[in-house]
Design brief:
It contains 2 helices and 33 strands. It has 385 residues and is mainly β. The longest helix is centred in the N-terminal third of the chain and has 7 residues, at 10-16.
């Protein structure tokens, strides 16, 4: 099912996106205003029989073909009990159902590559799996990972099916955290806490060239986002030495084919001071922040980036309105794609959520919606410029 918004007709814009100005919805920022047409495709909804018992949809990822992958929770009080699906409109495909097998809980962020293979972390059995709708493939578990470390967090999968992930030991706090790559050659270690002055390592992102972006905490307790080249060279994307970012924490990264990394930064002592940053080494560029006088934002979700350099993120505006925004290449101002209060699927949006790996090169964005009529689900916004 599709809902349409066209910036080519002001009357239609005012009807479909009530309360959203034409300039805000279609502006390119800093130049002429391009035409932009947005349609919405419903991927999953509680009205579908597969999801009638679902209490929560978790943040979706999207691949280059416009297929979204996502987890659902069947009990709101247990976020790890659910199943994983993928779909592009119409019938959905079940990837994994922990309630019917020995997987146990599934972490809530899944990733999907252009071949339609979904990677996820099964936390109860401390294992990484991939699947595309048939039998699951075990990527790694504690008995296979070097050092006997347990896989943790959300894995990353690229176009050739290589999977990057973090692993840690059972000590509290962990004393050994490493980053691993599973490929046809087996499991190899990419980074260790003992190397580069790291005390711990966090979630990863990986592009098709095998360049890996990751969170890391140094032995001095400072935290940052780093990138490891395919040759093994580690460089800083953002840390406390980044101009204007001393005292900040840095969120889960995403990376595109050109090695450009996007992330969220939040000041530890003042959470109202936030920014979306992009960079590949050297001083990162600020996509949006909450401290500029002209900024309409008070907070952000974690961003997505595509190979064209477009950066998308969830933003909360000063008037209390939440929306999904994109900064397109060559523009200076992010534009809203969908906002709370907009019309969608015969009702109006009352809640939105959007996260990492949810923007593809065709400018399709996967997000969670809740509507005034009680519908909740996953949709894809198809943006044509």
């Amino acid at each position: 099912m599709r809902s349409r918004f066209s910036c080519r007709a002001a009357s239609l814009a005012l009807t479909i996106f009530a309360g959203l100005s034409l300039s805000a919805g279609c502006g390119g920022g800093g130049g002429s205003t391009p035409s932009m047409n947005v349609t919405f495709t419903r991927i999953a909804d509680k009205s579908m029989s597969e999801f009638a018992a679902v209490d929560r949809f978790d943040l979706p990822s999207i691949n280059g073909a416009g297929t979204a992958a996502f987890q659902v929770d069947v009990t709101f009080t247990n976020f790890l009990a659910g199943a994983i699906y993928k779909g592009s409109g119409g019938a959905v495909t079940k990837i994994a159902d922990p309630t019917a097998g020995a997987l146990g809980g599934v972490d809530d962020h899944v990733t999907i590559n252009d071949a339609g293979t979904v990677a996820f972390h099964a936390s109860d059995v401390t294992s990484i799996f991939t699947g595309s709708g048939g039998a699951l493939t075990l990527v790694a578990n504690t008995s296979q990972v070097p050092g006997g470390l347990a896989p943790i967090g959300a894995p990353a999968i690229n176009a050739v099916g290589a999977v990057a992930f973090a692993g840690t030991n059972a000590a509290v706090p962990p004393t050994d955290t490493r980053l691993f790559l599973k490929s046809d050659a087996g499991i190899t270690t990419l980074q260790q806490t003992q190397a580069g002055g790291f005390a711990s390592l966090g979630n990863v992102a990986m592009n098709d060239s095998g360049v890996v972006a990751f969170q890391g905490m140094k032995t001095d307790a400072s935290q940052g986002v780093y990138v490891r080249s395919a040759a093994g060279v580690v460089s800083v994307i953002a840390d406390i030495n980044t101009p204007g970012r001393n005292g900040f924490s840095f969120g889960n990264p995403v990376i595109n084919s050109g090695g450009m990394v996007a992330l969220r930064a939040i000041k530890n002592s003042q959470v109202s001071s936030q920014a979306i940053l992009v960079g590949s080494g050297g001083a990162p560029t600020t996509v949006a922040d909450t401290t500029s006088v002209a900024s309409p934002f008070v907070s952000f979700g974690e961003p997505s980036i595509n190979d064209n350099g477009s950066v998308a993120f969830l933003g909360l505006e000063r008037d209390g309105t939440k929306g999904v925004f994109v900064l397109f290449p060559g523009a200076s101002t992010p534009v809203p794609i969908v906002k709370v209060g907009d019309a969608m699927f015969g009702s109006s949006v009352v809640q939105l959520d959007f996260g990492r790996n949810a923007l593809n090169n065709a400018n399709q964005l996967a997000f969670i919606y809740a509507l005034q009529d009680g519908s909740i689900g996953i949709a894809v916004a198809n943006v044509q410029r």
